[in-house]
Amino acid sequence: MDLWDKLKAVLLEEFLEIEDAAAVTEKTKLGEIPNWDSMAAVNLQILINELFQVDLPLDLLQDEATFEELIGFIHEPETIADAMRRLNGRS
Length: 91
Description:
By secondary structure, the protein is mainly α. The protein has five helices and no strands.
């Protein structure tokens, strides 16, 4: 099972209704998930940490973030610091 399959399984279990799951792809933005809010972001942050042992800052779980980006952070956690610097306007 690849990262996307694992992540989608968690989404289906925790966040998505069966009928919504088919529409969610790696390109889907978090804000496009039904009922996505700050509490859902915290829950996803915790689940990613538990499943993949990756500490993702909440700032990276904003509405515009895609699952593809999250998979990149899970696969290469060393990119998180660079992403945070870019997000905060620092090179």
